[in-house]
Amino acid sequence: MNIEHTNMTVRNIDATTRFLRAVYPDIKIRGKGPRQNGGIWQHVGTQTQYIALQQDQEPSVSTRRDYYDLGINHVGFVVEDLAVITERLLALGYRKNDMGVENEGRHSEYFVDESGIEWELVEYKSDDPSVRNNYTQ
Predict the structure, then answer these.
(1) How far apart are the first and last CA of the chain?
(2) Which end of the chain is more exposed for a tag (fewer CB within 10 A), N or C?
(3) 16 vs 11, 23, 27, 83, 135, CA distance in Å?
(4) pTM higher than 0.70 for the full model?
């Protein structure tokens, strides 16, 4: 599976873009413009993969409870150097939660951006799928 893009509505399109560019400094804004309802849209990513962001003209307050109500709980990204990215995100004031995992196959950390969206960052320590995908640890 190779995901080409995902589309999400955010409270603050600029804040979510800042977070994504803090994780991946080389990504670009591929396109942006007005929505028919008066909001805005923006595609952030590479030439082959991106996150489509939508912001309503008057963003609503969500009553969705993460990990309880229907909807996406977080989006996961593979990163090359989680320690460097974690340090950069903390220095920029992003909040890390306690759901991270570290074992012989992977290390992950979870961050929440200014729009309240949770992102999982994963650094794999092995190319062996049985080690990478060991969920008993």
Answers:
(1) 25
(2) N
(3) 8, 11, 13, 21, 30
(4) yes
**If you ran DSSP here, which 8-state letter would residue 66 be given?**
T
Q: Taking the CB of residue 26, how many other CB atoms lie within 10 A of it? A: 6
Q: Dig out the tokens for 71 from the structure.
A: 């909807």
Q: Which residue has the tokens 């460097």?
A: 84
Per DSSP, the residues of 77-135 read EE-S-HHHHHHHHHHTT-EE-S--EESSSEEEEEEE-TTS-EEEEEEES-S-HHHHT--
Q: Where are the domains of the chain?
A: 5-59+73-132
Render pLDDT for 100-110 as a digit per residue (tens, 0 to 9): 888 899 999 99
| Residue 77 and residue 104 in contact, taking contact as beta carbons nearer than 8 Å | no
CATH superfamily of 5-59+73-132: 2,3-Dihydroxybiphenyl 1,2-Dioxygenase, domain 1 (3.10.180.10)
39-67: average pLDDT = 89
CA nearest 108: which of 71, 135, 72, 68? 135
Of 57, 53, 55, nearest to 43 by C-alpha is: 53
